[in-house]
C-alpha cells in the first residue's frame, strides 16, 4: 500500500502498485506496497521485507465490522428507531471508505499485463464464482428453484466486485482528465435522474459511487496524515454525535434506500430535483464521516490488524449468513427486537465477521479469492526477455 503516512520534508511516498480490491488479499497488498522500481540486486544481509501498513489494515477491518453490523441491523429497523439511526449513519460512510481506499491503491494502475491479470484473478473470477454460489444458495435457502442466473445482474454483495472491475479499468481516464472529481460527481448526479440506465451490471451503483473511487485516486499519503491531526479527531466526536442525532430525527421521515445509491429518483418516487440535491448532500456527508472515521483508526499494530488482510473473505462469505438469517426466519424471534436482543445481534455480527477474516478461512478459500491461474494466460514477452537476460548473466 503505502510505505508511510508520515512524509518527511518535500519527499513523497512513491505510488503503490495496484491492490486489486478495496478489501485486498495478502498477495495483492504485498504487491501494492512495492514501488514500481525492481528491488536492488543485492540487498543488505538481514534486511527486513516491506511490512504491511497497519493503518489501512485496521481501517479495512473496522469498516468490514460495520458492514456486517449494518446488515445485521437491517431487519431491526422496522421496529427500532435507534437501529434505524445507527443503520443510516453507518451506511453513509462504510462503503465510501472502502471505495476511497480502493481508489487510493489504484493510483499506479495501467494496462500492464501483470496488473490486468491481477484484476481478472482478484476481482473478475471471485465475481463469477460468488455470483453462481449466491444464485444457487438463494434457490436452495429461499426455496426459489426458478430464480434466474445472470452475470449481468449482480445479486447482493457481488455488485461491489463488478463495480470495482469497471472503476479499475477507467483509472487511466481519471488520471488523464484535468478535473476528475467534479467530472465524476457530475456523472453521479446525472445517473441519479436517469432511470433508463437499468439494472445491468448494477450501473446505477457503479456511477453513483464513482466519485469516492476518484477521490481515492486523487489522494496522497499526506491527506491521510491531515485526517489524523488531533484537531480532526477532536472535531469528529461532535460531528458523529450530530450525525446520529440527525439520523434519529430522519429515521421515520427518510427512505433509507437513498444510501444504497442503486436507484434513480424516479424509482424512489421522488421529484427529479431531489436527485442532484441528495447526490451532493449525501456525497458531502459521506466525505465528512469517512474523514471522521479514518481520524480514529489506530496507526499502530493492534490485535485485529492481521485480520485486515482477510476483509474480502469476510465481506463475501458473511453474505450467506446475512441472507440466510432472513430466509430461515431467525429474526422472527421477538426477543431479538428488544434492546438486549439488538445488542446480542450486534455482538454476533462482529464476532462472525471477525472469524471469517482469520487466516484459516483465508487459507481455505484462497483458491477462489486469489487463484493464480497461470494456465489461463499467455506468458508476458517482457517477462520472458528479462528471464533470458538473467539466465544469460
Automatic annotation (TrEMBL):
UniProt feature, compositional bias: Polar residues: 1-14
Lipid biosynthesis among keywords: no
Pfam families recorded: Acyl_transf_3 (PF01757)
Biased composition (Low complexity): 31-47
TM stretches of this protein: 55-73, 85-106, 118-137, 149-167, 231-251, 277-296, 303-321, 341-361
Top-level taxon of the source organism: Bacteria
Signal peptide as annotated in the record: none
Region: Disordered, residue numbers: 1-50
Ranges of residues in domain Acyltransferase: 54-357
Keywords from the UniProt entry: Membrane, Transmembrane, Transmembrane helix
InterPro entries with a match to the protein in the record: Acyl_transf_3_dom (IPR002656), Nod_factor_acetyltransferase (IPR052734)
Protein name: Fucose 4-O-acetylase-like acetyltransferase
Species this protein is from: Streptomyces demainii
Amino acid at each position: 500500500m503505502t510505505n508511510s503516512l508520515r512524509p518527511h520534508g518535500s519527499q513523497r511516498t512513491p505510488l503503490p502498485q495496484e491492490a486489486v480490491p478495496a478489501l485486498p488479499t495478502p498477495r495483492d497488498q504485498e504487491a501494492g506496497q512495492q514501488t514500481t522500481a525492481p528491488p536492488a540486486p543485492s540487498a543488505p544481509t538481514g534486511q527486513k521485507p516491506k511490512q504491511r501498513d497497519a493503518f489501512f489494515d485496521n481501517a479495512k477491518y473496522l469498516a468490514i465490522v460495520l458492514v456486517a453490523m449494518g446488515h445485521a441491523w437491517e431487519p431491526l429497523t422496522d421496529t427500532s428507531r435507534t437501529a434505524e439511526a445507527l443503520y443510516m449513519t453507518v451506511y453513509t460512510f462504510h462503503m465510501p471508505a472502502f471505495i476511497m481506499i480502493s481508489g487510493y491503491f489504484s493510483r499506479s494502475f495501467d494496462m500492464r499485463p501483470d496488473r490486468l491479470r491481477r484484476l481478472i484473478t482478484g476481482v473478475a473470477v471471485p465475481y463469477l464464482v460468488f455470483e453462481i454460489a449466491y444464485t444457487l444458495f438463494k434457490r436452495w435457502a429461499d426455496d426459489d428453484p426458478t430464480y434466474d442466473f445472470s452475470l449481468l445482474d449482480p445479486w447482493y454483495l457481488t455488485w461491489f466486485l463488478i463495480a470495482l472491475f469497471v472503476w479499475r479499468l477507467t483509472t487511466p481516464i481519471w488520471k488523464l482528465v484535468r478535473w476528475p472529481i467534479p467530472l465524476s460527481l457530475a456523472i453521479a448526479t446525472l445517473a441519479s435522474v436517469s432511470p433508463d440506465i437499468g439494472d445491468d451490471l448494477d450501473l446505477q451503483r457503479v456511477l453513483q459511487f464513482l466519485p469516492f473511487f476518484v477521490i481515492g485516486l486523487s489522494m496522497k499519503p499526506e491527506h491521510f496524515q491531515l485526517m489524523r491531526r488531533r484537531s480532526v479527531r477532536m472535531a469528529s466526536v461532535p460531528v458523529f454525535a450530530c450525525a446520529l442525532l440527525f439520523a434519529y430525527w430522519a429515521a421515520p421521515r427518510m427512505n433509507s434506500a437513498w444510501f444504497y445509491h442503486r436507484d434513480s429518483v424516479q424509482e424512489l418516487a421522488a421529484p427529479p430535483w431531489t436527485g442532484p440535491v441528495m447526490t451532493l448532500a449525501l456525497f458531502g456527508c459521506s466525505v465528512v464521516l469517512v474523514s471522521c472515521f479514518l481520524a480514529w483508526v489506530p496507526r499502530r499494530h493492534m490485535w485485529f490488524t492481521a485480520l485486515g488482510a482477510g476483509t474480502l473473505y469476510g465481506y463475501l462469505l458473511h453474505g450467506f449468513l446475512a441472507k440466510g438469517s432472513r430466509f430461515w426466519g431467525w429474526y422472527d424471534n421477538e426477543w431479538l427486537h428488544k434492546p438486549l436482543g439488538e445488542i446480542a445481534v450486534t455482538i454476533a455480527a462482529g464476532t462472525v465477521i471477525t472469524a471469517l477474516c482469520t487466516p484459516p478461512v483465508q487459507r481455505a478459500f484462497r483458491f477462489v479469492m486469489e487463484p493464480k491461474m497461470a494456465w489461463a494466460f499467455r506468458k508476458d514477452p517482457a517477462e520472458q526477455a528479462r528471464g533470458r537476460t538473467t539466465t544469460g548473466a
